[in-house]
Structures are given as C-alpha cells and as structure tokens.
C-alpha cells in the first residue's frame, strides 16, 4: 500500500536524503532494536488495552534533580496588566497627579507609536486604594480583594522586566524565550524534557478564556503553545472555550469503539509504511497523536464531568465556573487537570491591554479573574496539591505610570511598559509570603533585584527539576534552550 | 644521493658517529681543560636558572601577547622531558643485556636536558606572559629549575659511572638519576594541579584510600558559625578563588581566607570595612559586565543580585569575621529535610519493568539520580488498581518514596502493605474508599512527610494516631468527616466606577 505519493515526488525526496538523515535513522532503528530486547517486544507491539505505545525521542524524560513542583499551572494575563493599579503600590504618586514624568526617569527609552507623539507624559496615580494583607502586610489593590487574602501564599515579583514593548514579540518572548516565532514554548520544553505523567491526557494543555467584548482583546495564536523545532507531539493541546471541548472527539453515530480501534490500527499500519518509506519523524508524531485522541475519547469526558464536584467548589469558584469558557471554569478545569497529573496547563485570559478607560475596564477584568485566582490557589492548597504544583500569574509586560491620551480625575489610559511589571508564583518550591524586587517611586525602572524573562523561565524550570542550561536541543547549529544564548540564572531569592 | 645513504644507516652507525665526535673533541682538547669547561658551564647555567625567579619577577600582570602565544606550547613541550627521563633508567638497566642500549641512554639524557631547558623557557613565558603567580605556580617553577639542574648533574656524573674504574667514585650517577626522577614526579604533579585543579586526582578516589591519603594533608580550619564563613566565604570560594587563591594569585589578591581578603592585593584594599561603595571588591563585581575590569573575568558567570547584596551588607556592617548576623540581611534557611537515599535497585530493573506491564501502574524515577527513589504512579488506570495490585509492589518497597493511589480501588487493607514501604515520604489516598481503620500502622514510617486523605471517609478518631508522627508536616483531610468542606465565600470585587471612556 503506502501513500498515493507521485513517484516523481518520492524520487525527489530520496534525492534530498542526506548522510545525516541516513545516520540519524539508522541510529534510531538500532536504538529501537536495543529497546525491544530490553523491554520485551510487548512494549513495541502495543499493550493489552489496545493502545499502542511508541518510543518518543527525547533526552531524559525525567527531572535532573528531585523537583519541588511536579506540575505547573500558568495563568497568562495577555495584554499586559497595569502593575501600578494592582500590585506596585506607589502612594507618593498621588501628589504628582498630572505632572509630567521627569525625563531622567524615562531616559532615552523608545516608546510605542501610540504615545511617542504625546507632548506630555502626565502621571496618572492609581484610581484605587491599596490595603495591607496577611501576616506579611503585603500591599494589594482594592481591585484584588481575594488575591490579597492569599498574599501570604504568594511570591510576588515586582521587578520582572522584558526586552519587548509590543504584544506579539513580548508574548513570544515570555512564552518561548525568543521574540521571533519558531521556538518551542515553556510547556513544550517541559513535556519534551520531563515527559508525561498521564498516558490518557496530553502532557501540556491550553485553555482559552471566552472574550469579553468590553475589553481590548489582543489576539493570541497557537504559536504561543507551539513546539517550534521540537516534534509536534510536544505542542500544547488547546481545549475550546465553547461547545465541545475537543471537536470531533465523540464517535459518530453507528461507530463503536471497536470499529474505531480497527480503523486506527489500519491507519497506523499505513502510517508505519509511510514512515518506513519516507522517514519523516512527523509521521510518528501523527501516529502517537491519533493514539492520544483515541484515549482522550474516554479521558476528556471524565475530566470535564463536573457533576461530582461538591457544593463547596461552587461556593469557592463562584457561579461563573459552571459556564464553560469563563476564566473561573478554566481555573477549575486546571485544578482537575492537576489532579490527573497533567504536567503543564496554561490558561489564557485576554483583555488586559488597557490603553484607555482604565477605570471602566480594569474592574471587569479583576471581577473575572480575582476570585478565580484565589479559588484555584486555595483549592489546590486545601486539597494538598499546592505542595507540588506551581502556579504562575503574569502577562507579557507592564503599563506606564503616565497616561496615554487624556488624564481626568475619573479616567486615564496606560501604554505598554517593558521596564517593570509584576508577576506572582505560588506553591511548589516557591518561598511563600515574599515580595521580590523593587521599582523606583514612579514604578518605571527596577531599582533592586531585576528578574529578566530568562531568569523567570530559568526559575520555573528549576522548580520543575530542570537545569535550564542542560535542557537543550540542537537546531540551526545551536544547542537551543528556553532561556536563550544570553546567560540566565535561577532567582534563588524566590525559592523556598 | 644522501638520503639513500641515510636509509642504509643502522642504529649502530649513530652510536659510532657520537663516539667519533667524542674522540674528535678528546683529541683536540686536553682532558683536564675539557672537564673544567664542562663543570664551569654547568655551574654558570645552574646559577642563571637559580637566579631566574629574581631576574625576571613574576609580578602577576599579563605581559606581551607573543609571550602568551609561545607560552601556551608549554603544556605540549613539557611532556617531552617526562617521557625521555623515564626512558633513561630503562635504557640503563636494559644495557646490562644489550650494551648498545646503554650507549643510547647517554644520548637520551642529552635530549632530556634540552627538552627540560625548553620546557622551563616556555613555562616561564606562559607564567610571565599571562600574569600567573601564586604558590602553585612558584612550586611548579622551582620544580622545573631543580629538575633541569638535576639532569645536568646526571650528565656530569654519568661518565664516571659508565667508565668506572676501581679508583674513582662511581655510585653518584644512579642516585642522581633517582633524585631527578623524584623531582620530575613532584614537578609534574604540581603542573597537573595547576591545570586540572588540586582535587583532580583524589576526586574519584575510593573512600578508604582517600581517608588514608588526605588525613592531615588537606585539613581545613574549623568552621565558625559566622556570617563570613557561612555566606561570604562560599560566594568567594565558588566564584573567585580559582584565580585569586592559593594556586593562582592574579593581581596579588587572594580571597580564600578572611585574612587574605582583608589584606587586599596590589591595587590596594579589597574591603574597606563599613564602606562597601569604596571597596574594590564591590566596585569590580558591580561594573557593567562588558567592562574590562569586571569581575569575575573571562566570561565566568557574574554574581547574582542577592550575592552582591550580601557582600555589600556584610562590608557595611563592618566586615567582621565573627559576627553571625548582618543588619538588613535575613537569609532564608531551607526548612527541608535532606532526602534519604534509597538503596540501589539497578539489579531489579527487568523485574520492575515486567511488573509495570502486568499491574497497569508505573514506577517512575523521582529524578535522574536513582537514589532519589521511585514514585508509584497509578493515574493511567486507577479503577483497576486495588489492594492486591499494591501488594505486588511490596518487593520494591524500599525503593519507593511516593505512592499515588488517588481514586484507586485500595481499601484500609492497604495500610498494612504501605507500612512496609520504609522509605515512603508521601502517600496520596484522596478519593479512595479508605475509612482510616488501620491508619495507625503508618506510624512505622519515620520519613513520612505527606499524607493526603481528602475526599475519603476518614474520621477524626481514625487519624488521631498520626499526630504522634513528628515528621508528618502535611496531612490533608479536606472534605472528610474529620474536616468537612466549608464554604469559603470570597469577597466581592469592586464594580467599574465609570462607563465613560477617556477623551
């Protein structure tokens, strides 16, 4: 059989086969043969339940050292939450209302096209008051009354800073360590480096939150959870925010599971032939993804069945959590995935790009997220999961202290600000009740303990048991890694 | 053609050529004058070598690039005298059976001398050119000089041994040779310690042997519980001492002990107590990393912000060697208990794999270090994993540090099995049918730190015995009769204050 590929194309492919292909393939065949003899042929032929197992390529498939966190949940606040209105308390700004920010603070910084033309850069103090929370007395905005209540469980980083000033490069940098597309994201590196802890669910899952059309939603794309140059089986599997979580997951009417199994076996056989013929590793990814989809036919409905959740869950997460696609629902799903040992879950919440109407939009955003964030961390904690689950909250940059557009006592706008922004982590291996780093009195420049995106990611990898310098993949002549070629260091001040 | 003649040459011809050269000199130069000249030359050369360290002082500064370029051939050349000198005694001994080999020994000894001189010269260029100085460098340098002199003395003494008559003293040469070889060994070791580090040889030495070798040699001063010994010295040790230590003293500065640190280097005091900003040490580590004088140099990783902050705070507080705390620095000490390593299970790997296939559960390593133990993972098929399946894993009990039994079919009967898993640190039983009868058996597990019984039917009375376990820091009973799920109702988030958009 084989694929109906025109003979001409096959010849061309064969001509493209280089010595490297040949050696690479013979190496793998030898490796498989060796493994078959070690494991017994069972492992390669498929196990009793009918799902085949395939040898995934990759380095270690386990941590380099005993990890503090086995899994992570990353709440990604796309658009750039304003640190001044939420976390970075600057009471001194009130008396500087409407004054221009000194040039010495701004320095020679290049601004975005949206405010570069402004004649004035009037300081806009936060509209909201701040309160102290917990034994640590952490100052948190009134917009986040619930997140504030768990301040003693959080590790707040006020000195996160990035190199990019616009959404796409900044969000790529945050997720993949590089502003350009084509590099694997954090989740892909984790599943490549650590492997799966649950054969029935993807190692890396992505949940998108339904849009709120009152908010300024910057697009997010699957590039952010792509596996880049790694095999595509390490890419994030996105669940839909409305309708079926995964499209076409249920069998069509009249097709039962045995028929589906037979069909898959036949397709796999064809794919194996294709692989033998053309040697493209993506064919193997395809086979393992079909198998994963087959297993997900039973595991995803079980995952999404919320009927057994006790009433206390709904009291905690709120009524929103019953509606698929809300941020609260996604947080609840993230907890359920953590319970089922999904290695990495990323929840995207868009809309934080508050260029204007901060007082109109920011409360909406906080209403959607504040309670759910609190619910997630509290729920993980009471269920004993926070000890080995790392929760990460943050966006791609911060926002300016000066107002974009007009400044009135009631309202203002804030532009992108890469030089400082606030993120937080909680759980697995993090030093709870810590605030790390400081910014100047304008929340403009970092004055103490800066944390670059590289350091931020190196610290996450460290918590998961990975030495960020060792987890590499050769591509384009470089030993590529998430933290990039510029030296990065684990921020020990964040670690328990 | 001459090269055709060359092909016909035999070793014996070379020996003959040397012999005729010797005859030629002997015929023309009176014997006593020749002896005098040779002795005088040896004396002058030795004197020059002995004075070399004073004539051209190693000042710890880098000099011309060409010196460094040539100097870097030292590691290559240095192996010639080693090989040649080892060959000499072998040839001398073999000479008892094959006299021509003893003839060759003299020639080889000459080559050894020439290579020694070359090695010393290039080594000196290396040290002088790159600005190396320090006790290790000095020892190696003196070794090289003494070795060269010893080889010269061997050459002088040898004729009295090979042409021994009963009248003149003859035993000097073998002893000289032994001395030369001992000097060679010592010098070569010093050189090796410079390139590979002092612990290169002993690092992987078997423990009993190590104890025997290192007792008395590498004993360190007793650790004081001060801020300096606990926090400052380790930073310097890990980042600076490879260039500013006993073996190498760049810029005349050593940072390997408190006294040396306070003494400073050739640019002055490294630390000015109470004045961090004026301390050279702080200045150098806080320059922009691409600055010429930035430390650590040569692309070594910079100190992180926390380490710099500690050094600054320590100097600001007076740079004391005894103070145990420093104002403004609260150092977080990890509360974690060190992990107890599990015994070696590599021999059981085949059995272990069979077990996984049969029981539908996985045993996965905690990390690359096998001694961190194994995790029993049942999440792929929890419903079919019960007491009987768990009992099957008893064989691997000492290697398992964590069991994930959440939502499996295990019951109270499993507590007896689990009590045999001596290295267990964590037990997950959430959502199972256990009611807590028999939980007391777990008190046998001394390393147990985490037990999760959320969503089970355990009662307060059932978990009471666990309270005696002093290592059990994490006991989760959420949503059980012992700790019913309480409704946590979060605060309302404020509403938008305006619907107006900015002008």
Protein model, in words:
- The complex is a heterodimer of chains A (496) and B (503).
- Chain A has two domains: 1-45, no CATH class; 71-250 and 281-494, Alkaline Phosphatase, subunit A, CATH 3.40.720.
- In chain A, strand 13 (438-439) and strand 14 form a beta hairpin.
- Chain A is α/β, with parallel strands linked by helices.
- Chain A has helices at 7-16, 19-39, 42-45, 83-86, 103-106, 145-149, 167-176, 186-194, 257-278, 281-304, 311-317, 327-339, 358-382, 453-463; strands at residues 71-77, 130-133, 138-141, 154-161, 204-208, 237-239, 344-349, 389-394, 398-403, 414-417, 421-427, 434-436, 438-439, 446-448, 451-452, 473-475, 478-480.
- By secondary structure, chain B is mainly alpha-helical.
- Chain B has three domains: 11-196, no CATH class; 227-316, no CATH class; 346-476, Ribonuclease Inhibitor (Leucine-rich repeat, LRR (right-handed beta-alpha superhelix), Alpha-Beta Horseshoe), CATH 3.80.10.10.
- Chain B has helices at residues 2-8, 11-28, 31-55, 65-71, 74-77, 79-94, 99-130, 135-162, 172-196, 207-214, 227-239, 258-263, 280-286, 305-316, 349-359, 387-392, 414-418, 460-463; strands at 362-365, 374-377, 400-404, 426-428, 450-452, 474-476.
- In chain B, strands 1-2-3-4-5-6 form a six-stranded mixed β-sheet, with helices on one face.
- In chain B, helix 3 packs antiparallel against helix 8 and helix 6 runs antiparallel to helix 7 (99-130).
- Classes of the chains: A alpha/beta (496), B mainly alpha (503).
- At the A-B interface, helix 6, helix 11 and helix 13 of A face helix 14 and helix 15 of B.
């Amino acid at each position: 059989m084989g694929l109906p590929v025109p003979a001409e194309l096959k010849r061309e492919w064969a001509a493209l086969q280089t010595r490297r292909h040949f050696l690479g393939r013979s190496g793998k065949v030898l490796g498989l043969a060796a493994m078959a003899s070690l494991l017994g042929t069972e492992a390669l032929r498929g196990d009793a339940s009918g799902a085949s197992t395939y040898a995934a390529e990759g380095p270690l498939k386990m941590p380099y050292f005993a990890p503090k966190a086995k899994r992570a949940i990353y709440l990604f606040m796309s658009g750039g939450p304003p640190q001044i209105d939420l976390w970075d308390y600057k009471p001194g700004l009130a008396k500087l209302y409407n004054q221009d920010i000194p040039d010495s603070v701004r320095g020679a910084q290049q601004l975005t096209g949206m405010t570069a033309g402004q004649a004035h850069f009037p300081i806009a103090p936060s509209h909201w008051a701040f309160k102290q929370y917990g034994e640590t007395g952490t100052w948190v905005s009134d917009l986040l009354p619930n997140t504030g209540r768990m301040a003693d469980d959080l590790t707040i980083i006020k000195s996160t800073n990035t190199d990019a000033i616009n959404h796409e490069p900044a969000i790529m940098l945050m997720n993949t360590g590089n502003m350009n597309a084509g590099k694997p994201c954090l989740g892909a590196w984790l599943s490549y480096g650590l492997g799966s802890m649950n054969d029935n669910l993807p190692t890396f899952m992505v949940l998108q939150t339904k849009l709120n059309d009152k908010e300024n939603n910057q697009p997010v794309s699957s590039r952010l959870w792509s596996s880049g140059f790694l095999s595509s089986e390490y890419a994030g599997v996105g669940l839909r925010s409305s309708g079926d979580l995964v499209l076409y997951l249920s069998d069509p009417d009249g097709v039962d599971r045995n028929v589906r199994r037979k069909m898959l076996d036949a397709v796999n056989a064809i794919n194996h032939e294709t692989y033998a013929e053309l040697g493209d590793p993506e064919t193997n990814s395809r086979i393992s993804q079909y198998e994963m989809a087959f297993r997900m036919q039973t595991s995803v409905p079980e995952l999404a069945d919320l009927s057994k959740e006790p009433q206390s869950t709904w009291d905690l997460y709120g009524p929103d959590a019953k509606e698929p696609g809300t941020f609260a629902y996604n947080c609840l799903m993230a907890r359920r995935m953590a319970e089922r040992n999904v290695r990495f879950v990323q929840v995207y919440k868009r809309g934080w790009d508050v260029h204007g109407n901060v007082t109109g939009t920011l409360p909406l955003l906080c209403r959607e997220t504040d309670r759910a964030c609190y619910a997630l961390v509290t729920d993980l904690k009471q269920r004993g999961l926070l000890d080995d689950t790392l929760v990460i909250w943050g966006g791609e940059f911060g926002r300016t202290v000066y107002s974009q557009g007009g400044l009135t006592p009631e309202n203002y706008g804030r532009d992108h600000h890469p030089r400082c922004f606030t993120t937080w982590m909680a759980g697995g291996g993090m030093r709870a009740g810590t605030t790390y780093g400081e910014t100047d009195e304008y929340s403009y420049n970092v004055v103490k303990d800066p944390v670059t995106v590289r350091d931020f990611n190196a610290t996450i990898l460290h918590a998961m048991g990975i030495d960020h310098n060792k987890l590499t993949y050769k591509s384009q002549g470089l030993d590529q890694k998430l933290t990039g070629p510029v030296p990065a260091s684990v921020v020990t001040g964040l670690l328990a | 053609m001459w090269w055709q003649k060359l092909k016909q040459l035999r070793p014996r011809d070379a020996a003959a050529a040397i012999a005729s050269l010797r005859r030629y000199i002997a015929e023309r130069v009176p014997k006593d004058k020749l002896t005098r000249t040779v002795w005088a030359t040896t004396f002058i050369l030795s004197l020059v070598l002995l004075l070399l360290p004073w004539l051209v002082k190693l000042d710890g500064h880098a000099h011309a690039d060409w010196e460094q370029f040539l100097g870097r051939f030292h590691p290559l050349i240095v192996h010639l005298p080693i090989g040649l000198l080892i060959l000499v005694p072998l040839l001398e001994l073999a000479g008892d059976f094959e006299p021509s080999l003893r003839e060759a020994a003299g020639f080889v000894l000459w080559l050894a001398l020439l290579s020694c001189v070359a090695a010393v010269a290039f080594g000196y260029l290396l040290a002088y050119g790159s600005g190396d100085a320090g006790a290790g460098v000095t020892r190696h340098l003196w070794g090289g000089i003494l070795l060269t002199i010893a080889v010269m003395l061997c050459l002088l003494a040898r004729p009295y041994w090979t042409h021994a008559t009963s009248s003149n003293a003859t035993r000097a040469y073998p002893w000289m040779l032994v001395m030369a070889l001992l000097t060679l060994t010592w010098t070569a070791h010093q050189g090796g310690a410079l390139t590979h580090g002092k612990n290169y040889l002993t690092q992987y030495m078997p423990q009993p042997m190590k104890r025997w070798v290192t007792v008395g040699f590498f004993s360190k001063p007793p650790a004081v519980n001060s801020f300096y010994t606990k926090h400052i010295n380790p930073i310097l040790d890990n980042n600076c001492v490879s260039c500013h230590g006993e073996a190498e003293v760049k810029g005349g500065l050593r940072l390997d002990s408190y006294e040396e640190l306070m003494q400073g280097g050739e640019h002055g005091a490294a630390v000015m107590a109470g004045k961090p900003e004026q301390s050279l040490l702080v200045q150098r580590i806080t320059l922009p990393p691409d600055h010429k004088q930035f430390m650590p140099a040569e692309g070594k990783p910079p100190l992180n912000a926390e380490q710099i902050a500690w050094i600054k705070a320590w100097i600001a507080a007076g740079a004391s060697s005894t103070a145990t705390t420093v104002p403004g620095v609260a150092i977080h000490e990890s509360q974690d208990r060190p992990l107890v390593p599990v015994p070696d299970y590599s021999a059981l790997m085949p059995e272990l794999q069979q077990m996984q296939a049969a029981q539908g559960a996985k045993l996965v390593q905690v990390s690359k270090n096998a001694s961190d133990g194994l995790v029993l993972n049942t999440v792929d098929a929890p419903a079919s994993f019960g007491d009987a399946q768990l009992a099957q894993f008893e064989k691997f009990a000492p290697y398992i540090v964590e069991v994930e039994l959440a939502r499996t079919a295990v019951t109270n009967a499993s507590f007896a099995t689990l009590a045999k898993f001596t290295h267990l640190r964590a037990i997950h039983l959430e959502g199972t049918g256990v009611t807590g009868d028999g939980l007391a058996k777990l008190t046998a597990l001394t390393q147990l730190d985490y037990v999760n019984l959320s969503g089970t039917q355990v009662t307060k009375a059932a978990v009471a015995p666990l309270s005696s376990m002093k290592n059990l820091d994490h006991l989760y009973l959420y949503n059980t009769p012992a700790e019913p799920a309480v409704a946590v109702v979060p605060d309302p988030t404020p509403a938008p204050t305006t619907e107006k958009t900015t002008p």
